[in-house]
């Protein structure tokens, strides 16, 4: 017997509409979303923003080739809908993240991505990122920071099992930040994780 999906009502429609918008965004911005089981998608690009200083001394600067990271939000939303509690959701997503990072490491070591200096993204989910070789950096003040704050908190309200209630808890932690890594440091962590 086929198991019924726990995704019902308004949230089901939100997922449907958001997934459609996300697919369009990926197509327009050439985001590489070629593996359905990846929790992170990538967009190869030439960086044009302000310098991003990393913990290992590397500085990502305008003109550098980078991978812009995007969460697979459809996967995050579905995981939150299916999870019985926050811990179950986190455990499930961490397992998927580790597999995704291994595949990303394999890509970085191919000739196609040999010119990539590093990678970066903006996320509310930056706690624990350093264990995977990423630096966590404050977003510069400005319109972009305010937009990211509004947009990512809206997603959090949709994705988290506790919905809007999560936005009222530990609000100081719900601040979007830049999560970035140099090619060398990221690959070093991926190789260590693979052999451990």
Structure description:
The structure is a single chain. The protein has 196 residues and is α+β, with helices and mostly antiparallel strands. Helices cover 43% and strands 17% of the residues. It contains five helices and seven strands. It has helices at residues 9-29, 73-82, 86-108, 143-159, 183-195, and strands at residues 40-46, 52-53, 59-60, 65-71, 118-123, 135-138, 177-182. The chain has a five-stranded mixed sheet with strand order 1-4-5-7-6. A hairpin with a 5-residue loop joins strand 2 (52-53) and strand 3. Helix 3 packs across helix 5 (183-195). It is globular, with a radius of gyration of 17 Å. Residues 1-7 have low confidence and may be disordered.
List the defining traits of the structure above.
alpha+beta, globular, two-stranded antiparallel sheet, 196 residues, 7 strands, disordered N terminus, five-stranded mixed sheet
What is this entry, summarized?
The chain has 196 residues and is an alpha+beta fold.
Number of helices: 5
Fraction in beta strands: 15-25%
Please mark out the parts with pLDDT under 50 across 5 or more consecutive residues, or reply none. Answer: 1-7
Taken together, the total number of domains comes to 1
**Share of helical residues:** 40-55%
> Largest sheet, order of strands side by side?
1-4-5-7-6
Could you say which overall geometry the principal axes of the C-alpha atoms support?
A: globular
- The succession of helices and strands, N to C, reads HEEEEHHEEHEH
Q: What is the name of the CATH class?
A: Alpha Beta
